[in-house]
Amino acid sequence: MKYVLVTGGVVSGLGKGVTASSIGLLLKSCGLRVTSIKIDPYLNIDAGTMSPFEHGEVFVLDDGGEVDLDLGNYERFLDIKLTRDNNITNGKIHRAVIDKERKGDYLGKTVQVVPHVTDAIQDWIERVAMIPVDGQEGSADVCVIELGGTIGDIESMPFIEALGQFSYRVGSGNFCLVHVSLVPVLSVVGEQKTKPTQHSVRGLRGLGLTPNILACRSTEPLDENVKQKLSQFCHVQAGNIITLHDVSNIWRVPLLLKDQKAHKAILKALNLLSVVREPDLVDWTSRAQLCDKLHDPVRIAMVGKYNGLSDAYLSVLKALLHASVACRKKLIVEWVAASELELETNEETRMAAWDLLKGADGILVPGGFGDRGVQGKILAAEYARENRIPFLGICLGMQTAVIEFARNVLNLQDANSTEFDPETANPCVIFMPEGSKTHMGGTMRLGSRTTYFQTTDCKSAKLYGNVTSVDERHRHRYEVNPAMIKQLETAGLSFVGKDETGERMEICELPQHPYYVGVQFHPEFKSRPGKPSGLFLGLIAAACGQLDTLIPNSAHANQPQSLTKKGITIMSNGASGMKVHQNGNSIKAANGLLNGVYANGNGVHI
Q1: Distance (Å, rounded) from C-alpha 156 to C-alpha 131?
Q2: Residue 588 pLDDT more than 70?
């Protein structure tokens, strides 16, 4: 097994996750099998109890692991399925060490950071690196490890010590260190400054780790004299100093590394240069180029609770991105704070939020927890239903759609979720009986579960390729009340997807609406570049008037349909990267393309 370690210096938020994902993709394109590990130094066991404002979205894996969002980047770039153990935290390591101490496994020894904690870290890395994640038998060839945080952080020290020991444990020909650092430009002098990177590398070397490659974040490509200076002071060959300057879209980062021959530097350090092929990124290159050429916009209103940090909805944004490019549209996300749609908000703010909502081609209400902004989500669902605007509700978004329908169609004005009103007389959404009200971490309905379609004559089944069932990832404590299903369906809300018992609602639709779909699961977690989620593809297609072409209402609707435009073919039979079943057989998803995401009016590329 070969290992590539990615560390960061100077400041956080430099893009270590994207860099690690891009390195993995580059190595995979050379014919190697790649797996990934993310190390988070915080004391939490996992990311499940952390606020989206604190740490971005919680990414959910097939096995129910609630992990850092960077594992989502790994899965999307490498098209792999990771496990909860691929995310290492200080909490997990210390719990494992304490559990062994309580069992007496240390035979009376004094348990210390060195060697017990550091050994536990190394053993964990070696064990997890051997787990196949690409659907093939046997272990991967290369494991890319990202160390979260910044060199010098006190909570990272056990991991840095362990990784220093690990580099000697596996041998120099099996270990490559890529250090991502910042080369700022001071506006006063306009000069690229190397001193922050020099200090970062000096600190790294002082902790026992020597970088093989420097990946320097900057606004513009590094000047040649700057590279020479960094080489001299950081003891890194000039040819191994890579510029990670700002690019037009995230999909250009692997190409940036390839153009600077970063793969050759890594392969040389790992003694693999003579056994691999040249990287094949032809398709990736065409997708990255297409990103910048799309100009016809599709506007999607994101009615969320955590709009202050776009990373809180990272996978949703990426799923919209994958679907929009499949429809040859430039995605524009209109950020609508759910609470700003409510009557309690001051009029000017409320009117601005409603203007954004009404100007959108489609509406997406993502998941969330707590009652803040719920009334705004309900109002958004009502507006989409009454005005026949394409709508997709995910998790809480589906639940608020059900509440809105009960209030305004069934005329149950006090209809609510017991999450927000435990005493409601008409509980449309209830706490799941197997959940825990005393322990928050890892107690939800998590991971991949099978949804069974009750009919194939519905939009969602057709978007999944006319299958009988589909596996998607879940993360929720509340569910639609089974006791109210008959009443809701009689009034016109169809629950077309249910779990294996038939008692848990997974997908709802309004059959007479152009596109009004709610799902209890999170389809965004399995969307991939080139394999857009079917439900997101449906939303975008409906928003830009292409849904009838994608799933035509004809006698041949059950046959795979293709949407061809300007040389790009999008297949509707299983358009997402999820596992789908048809008569017990797996079927493959079709390819789409990538696109850039543009936030409303702020010029931010996500």
Answers
A1: 25
A2: no
Is pLDDT above 50 for 581? no
SS3 helix, strand, coil % of the chain, rounded to 5?
A: 40, 20, 40
Angle between helices 374-386 and 347-358 (to 10 degrees): 40
Predicted pLDDT of residue 157: 95
**pLDDT grade, residue 438 (50/70/90)?**
low
CB 430 within 8 A of CB 420: no
Residue partners of 13: CB distance under 8 A and separation at least 6: none
Sequence-distant (6+) residues with CB within 8 A of 483 are none
Closest CA to 29 of 233, 258, 342: 258
pLDDT of 592 over the 60 cut = no
| Amino acid letter, residue 590 | A
> Do the beta carbons of residue 148 and residue 16 sit within 8 Å?
yes
The stretches of 359-395 forming alpha helices (DSSP H) are: 374-386
| pLDDT at residue 432, rounded to an integer | 83
C-alpha–C-alpha distance, residues 504 and 194, integer Å: 58
Q: How far apart are the first and last CA of the chain?
A: 34
Are 70 and 20 contacting, i.e. CB atoms less than 8 angstroms apart?
Answer: yes
Candidate list 395, 458, 508, 544, residue with the active-site label: 395
* Annotated active-site residue in 263, 474, 513, 522: 522
d(CA 1, CA 34): 10
* 562-565/568-571 β-pairing: antiparallel
Q: Bridge partners of 498?
A: 452, 505
Task: Locate all alpha helices (DSSP H) within 30-87, ordered by sequence.
Answer: 52-55, 70-78
What digits encode the pLDDT tens for the residues 277-287? 999 999 999 88
Q: Is residue 585 pLDDT above 50, yes or no?
A: no
Residue 508: active-site member: no
State the sign of the Cα–Cα–Cα–Cα dihedral 151, 153, 157, 162.
Answer: negative
Burial pattern 492-531, b for ≥16 Cβ within 10 A else e, equals: ebbbbbbbeeeebbbbbbbeebbbbbbbbbbbbbbbbbbb
Work out the number of other CB atoms within 10 angstroms of the CB of residue 13: 11
pLDDT, tens only, 204-239 = 999 999 999 999 999 999 999 999 999 999 999 999
Query: pTM surpassing 0.90?
Result: no
CA separation for the pair 267, 188 (Å, rounded): 40
CA distances from 576 to 74, 135, 218, 594, 597 (A): 17, 17, 35, 14, 19
The answer to whether residue 601 scores a pLDDT higher than 50 is no
Q: How far is CA 601 from the centre of its chain?
A: 24
Instruction: Determine the pLDDT at residue 308.
Output: 81
The yes-or-no answer on residue 291 being catalytic is no
CB 70 within 8 A of CB 24: no
**Residue 234 is a catalytic residue:** no
Residue indicated by tokens 């840095």: 160
493's CB contacts (< 8 A; 6+ apart) are 402, 405, 409, 508, 509, 510
Q: What is the mean pLDDT of the chain?
A: 88
- Phi (first) and psi of residue 557, to 5 degrees: -65, -25
d(CA 268, CA 242): 15
List pLDDT tens digits, range 369-425: 888 999 999 999 999 999 999 999 999 999 999 999 999 999 999 999 999 999 999
Kind of pairing between the strands at 362-365 and 427-431 = unpaired
SS3 387: coil
